[in-house]
Amino acid sequence: MERQDGSRGVRSHDREVPAAVAESFRRGWEDTSLKLPLVSGAEYAAKRRAALSARFPGERIVVPSGGLKVRSNDFDYPFRPHSAFVHLTAEQGTQAVPDSVLVFEPTGTGHSVTLFTRPRSPRDGGPNGAEFYSDRRHGEFWVGRRRMLSETADALGVEAASRDDLERALGGNVPTRAVLGEDALVDALVPPDRGTEAELLTFLSELRLVKDEWEVQQLRAAVGHTVAGFHDVAGELRHATSLARGERWIEGTFNRRARMEGYGLGFETIAGAGSHACVLHWMHNDGPVRDGDLLLLDAGVEADSFYTGDVTRTLPVSGRFTDVQRRVYDLVFAAQSAGIAALRPGARFGDFHDAAMRVIAEGLDGWGLRPDVEAAPDASLYRRYTVCGSGHMLGLDCHDCASARRDAYLDGVLEAGHVLTVEPGLYFQPDDLTVPEELRGIGVRIEDDFVITADGAQCLSSGLPRSADEVEAWTAALR
Ligand code: GLY
Ligand code: MN
Q: Could you list the residue range(s) of the whole structural domain that residue 29 is in?
């Protein structure tokens, strides 16, 4: 007798599978192999693989997708492949297979590329022959059908092989660079050399700085779905005020849109009402949403291609800002507008932040809130009210290109095809004794997504109201 097993061993609630039943599972299945078309974006992924191959001639390059992460006991979090792996394969949505590994094997002229992956659960009674009905983590009857190897090759335009052959493929005395920490087998087989890994990570990150036309299309779609989610939320503001945990209603409203239109969320939704808006990444979302408060919603839909939007709006729950809320909002709005005006190819990445901070510094100065007026904006103590930078690259990761060198990113120059956020904010903590009481507990951030064009920048999130008047009209109408 076999016990239902899965890759985790027998569980207390598993029942035995008698030999006759196991035998019956082996027979009587129709051939359902498919002829799949090349996925959208595959040609662009091929160009990125060629760039990676050219950068590291003669070396083996290993880029894993990563695997499932346990949530508790025998349930996992939804699978989300590593962004470098996605960038090099154009793998999308629920098609992505945990524990896949892309291997570039050096040849005389470049590299041959093979995707080692788990093929569709076999039904032939071979070594993995019980997987399809007994493996709750990978079996077809438990988690759905994966592609056969030939289907993967057709869909992604790369050679595909079984992960069972990975160990052999990584043998031999070939200089190897790998993305480590994502796949235990790769980590065991590739000697750690943090120097070569860092160079690889940097290259892979910088390869993502300039988005190609297909990526811009994906980001446009992701931001479009994000905008739709914000409209959903604005329509639920009134209902949220009737609930003990209104922030959760806001979160759930946005998240439903994210699951409907995309793969899910680019990051956990931030829904902070009242003084929770002063917590930059407020994700507990367990507070009430009260009339008279502001609601800060920072959220992004991740498309099936895994590119994400990242937008913030700060809404008056009642449909009207109070005078003091409007004063803060208008200053952040003016700062964001100055930042946006500084976006163009050839500008330093830091220019939009500096422009936004100059407006904030002058505004706070006017309110008598700038303790060291002589200090340069970025060195000034007013930063206790702004806390963080005013934007970041956006792409497959919300904070994209995280391993790029400072010279290429923070101290670099904007180029056509860069996609980034502009998101200044002011956060007056509820216990901050340096500000008048009326400001305490007010947090405002306004965030939009932009693609740098040949002569300026285009806003991808322009479908949302931005000025105080527009935001009031929008929320009041939807209430
Ligand atoms: N949307 C979250 C952040 O940019 O940090
Ligand atoms: Mn952001």
A: 19-206
